[in-house]
Specification:
Chain lengths: ~280, ~325
């Protein structure tokens, strides 16, 4: 052990270049891949999402003969095979929350902000890296869920192929919904700063709010219901219309993106304002 | 150089830092001394741009922290030991920090070696002891080879060998011409490590200056005198402008007069002396005396508490 640094520091001031965006992105990627929770969350997400699609596909194939004429006519094999994405949405939300709240929970945020004092840049880099991971995860799971689900929808049940109208949109769009919702969760965590609180808020918006809205008189509940991520996701992943009042798939995705951006902007403003 | 200019910070009803101004010079170790809760950590967080001051500002080499282009290459800090994700390894914690400031990967291994953590570099931080956490925090501070260093209570949790190591490290860094600012609530530790002192209490500046000045100004010095003719000598010394206090054991505590002057006085008056010994109170006592008024949390003596409770307050 030596008592001083090995390099001799020269007191002459050096003009350092400004911190580069690519450096911040690399650092956020290092942070994300060097904790175990990231890997385990993605593994859990894969098992549950593909598993649910498998169960949904095989169950319907077995019961097809008991379906009524109406059920057969409105059957949407694409939507059935993407049912598992609801769980992807839940789990990506947990990951999005943890990526931010773990910094607060462990105190790492102070090391991070000392290294990058321009705080909105930290949030932007973190959101960008997380979104890239979430898009890849969402798309991989949407496509694998779809393909596995269709493979199990054996005759006499009909199955879908990607070349049919709107099927590719439903699958690819379903993956994007997962990624955008994850980003929304990251924004919530930036505002709330506690894992449990942020996850509760996210699950509240994703699952609890639609249940409450459905129990209200439809004149009150229905107009709000179309803004719910649950409804928007369902429209995106459906090929056969279910006749509900809803945004068109891409407009719905823009609404979700609006939630994510709003949460991130408010979170970024608070991050800048609050003491770390 | 760190320059704190009229910084005030409030948390709800309490004023943590109250119009605090001081300078931390280059090339020496500056001790930041104050009782627990006196605002030392808050002041350091304000210098680091982590907490926002309600008024005033803190600058490093004339620049506010958030304007530093590559902050880790200019300022390194140990603010809290173990404020690190427990699931990440020591190496990866330092590596992500290095990446933000374009610091080479080689430097990460170098600082790990420097603080003696090479054996555990790829172990998860959650398994580290408090002392190892401190060493990792010090490694993070040194990462960018910065000219300004802040350490908040760096010896907490360290064993005696570790304390000695930190002491030498701080002195070595200052000797290289860096600005070294280290907080502590232990005057005795600062007397050994620091050259310069900034003393605060309840968020206010109490004293600033060199350690040697602090000692001569604040260490209460007096001469202990024992003689069979106590009253007579006391009268003679008071006549020469000394302050004389009679102790319980019959000796005199004489201040404002040197031992030599007292000896001469006794000789001239033909008074026998049994004892003539200069005394100086410890620095710790001087520090406690100085900050007594400004300690937020202090233990009461039992008899004080009894007196207070029986008087019905």
């Amino acid at each position: 052990m030596t008592s001083t640094t090995t390099t001799v520091w020269s007191p002459a001031p050096v003009a350092h270049p400004r911190q580069r965006t690519v450096s911040l992105l690399r650092a956020e990627w290092t942070k994300m891949r060097t904790v175990r929770s990231t890997m385990w969350t993605l593994v859990a997400m894969t098992i549950i999402t593909v598993g649910i699609s498998m169960i949904a596909g095989s169950t319907i194939a077995n019961r097809w003969n008991t379906f009524s004429v109406i059920q057969r006519l409105t059957f949407d094999p694409t939507r059935v095979s993407l049912r598992g994405l609801l769980f992807s949405q839940l789990i990506i939300g947990v990951l999005g929350v943890l990526v931010m709240s773990a910094e607060y929970g462990t105190g790492t945020i102070r090391a991070t902000l000392a290294a990058v004092p321009r705080r909105p840049r930290v949030l932007a880099a973190k959101a960008a890296v997380f979104f890239a991971v979430a898009v890849v995860a969402g798309e991989v799971l949407a496509f694998s869920g779809f393909l596995v689900g269709q493979a199990l929808l054996v005759s006499p049940a009909p199955h879908a192929v990607l070349s049919q109208p709107n099927v590719l949109r439903a699958v690819a769009g379903g993956g994007l919904v997962v990624a955008v919702l994850g980003l929304f969760a990251l924004g919530l965590a930036t505002i709330i700063r506690h894992s449990a609180g942020a996850i509760t808020a996210y699950v509240g918006v994703l699952l609890v709010a639609p249940i409450i809205l459905q129990s209200l008189p439809s004149s009150i509940g229905q107009p709000i219901l179309k803004f719910m991520p649950f409804t928007i996701s369902d429209t995106m992943t459906s090929v056969v219309s279910n006749g509900n009042d809803a945004f068109s798939p891409w407009v719905g995705l823009l609404v979700l993106a609006g939630y994510a951006i709003a949460a991130l902007v408010i979170g970024g403003w608070l991050l800048n304002r609050r003491d770390a | 150089m760190i320059d704190v200019r009229g910084v005030t910070k409030r948390f709800k009803d309490t004023v943590a830092v109250d119009s605090l101004s001081f300078e931390v010079p280059t090339g020496v170790v500056t001790g930041f001394l104050g009782p627990n809760g006196s605002g030392k950590s808050t002041t350091m967080r304000i210098i680091m741009g982590l907490d926002h001051a309600d008024s005033g500002e803190a600058v490093i080499n004339g620049v506010p922290y958030h304007q530093l282009a590559q902050p880790l290459r200019e300022v390194g800090a140990l603010l809290e030991a173990k404020a690190i994700h427990p699931g990440r390894t020591a190496f990866n914690h330092l590596w992500y920090l290095a990446q933000t400031n374009d610091i080479a990967r080689r430097r990460v291994s170098e600082v790990i070696e420097l603080v003696g953590l090479t054996q555990v570099a790829h172990k998860r931080v959650g398994k580290f002891s408090l002392g190892m956490g401190q060493r990792l925090g010090i490694a993070a501070a040194l990462l960018g080879d910065p000219g300004t260093l802040l350490f908040d209570e760096p010896i907490n949790g360290l064993d005696p060998e570790g304390i000695l190591w930190v002491r030498n490290l701080l002195k070595g860094l200052a000797a290289e011409g860096r600005t070294v600012f280290v907080s502590s609530h232990l005057m005795s530790e600062m007397a050994l490590t620091a050259d310069h002192l900034v003393v605060i209490g309840r968020g206010r500046l109490i004293s600033t200056g060199s350690v040697s000045d602090f000692i001569t100004t604040n260490a209460n010095q007096y001469v202990r005198v024992r003689t069979p003719r106590t009253d007579e000598l006391a009268g003679l010394l008071v006549a020469q402008g000394a302050r004389v206090q009679r102790e319980d054991d019959g000796s005199l505590a004489v201040s404002d007069l040197s031992a030599e002057q007292i000896g001469v006085t006794c000789g001239n008056a033909g008074i026998f002396l049994y004892e003539l010994s200069p005394q100086s109170a410890s620095l710790e006592e001087a520090f406690m005396e100085m900050t007594r008024e400004s300690v937020d949390y202090h233990g009461h003596r039992v008899d004080e508490d009894v007196a207070t409770s029986t008087s019905g307050k």
